[in-house]
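Retry 2 of 3 after timeout on previous attempt. Resubmitting structure tokens to design endpoint.
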């Protein structure tokens, strides 16, 4: 068995022993015991013996990896939210323009914060403008 994800701590992984219906499992390349031991040695990776032909454990294996993916997604959201909080309470929103999810809320929050800090921005831009004096335009478009 070989597995070498670049970040194994964040890699979603299950092991599936397939085609267990063939000759009662006598043609296995890897014995079930060895597969289970390997999974245990790698932090209790979920292991499933499956047979698509006999519809055995296929749905269970799929549901397991789907559940792990949803848990991982929630963990990632928590990490992003925690990072934003650690940087001075930067607002964090999960948004989707396609599904019209949280877009208005995120925009209104950013607009409110921009208005609250309007004077801070003027100071910043005033300083930048002083470093780069305007040059007189002699020809061309006035834009």
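Retry 2 succeeded. Sequence:
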């Amino acid at each position: 068995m070989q597995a070498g994800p670049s970040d194994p701590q964040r890699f979603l992984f299950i092991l599936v022993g397939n085609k267990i219906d063939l000759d009662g499992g006598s043609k296995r390349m890897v014995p079930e015991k060895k597969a289970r031991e390997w999974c245990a040695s790698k932090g209790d990776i979920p292991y499933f013996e499956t047979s698509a032909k006999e519809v055995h454990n296929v749905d269970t294996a799929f549901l397991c990896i789907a559940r792990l993916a949803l848990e991982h997604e929630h963990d990632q959201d928590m990490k992003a939210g925690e990072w934003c909080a650690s940087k001075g309470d930067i607002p964090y929103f999960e948004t989707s323009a396609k599904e019209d999810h949280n877009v208005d809320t995120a925009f209104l929050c950013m607009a409110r914060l921009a208005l609250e800090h309007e004077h801070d921005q003027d100071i910043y831009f005033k300083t930048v403008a002083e470093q780069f004096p305007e040059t007189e335009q002699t020809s061309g478009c006035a834009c």
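Attempt log closed. The chain has two domains: 10-88, 93-130.
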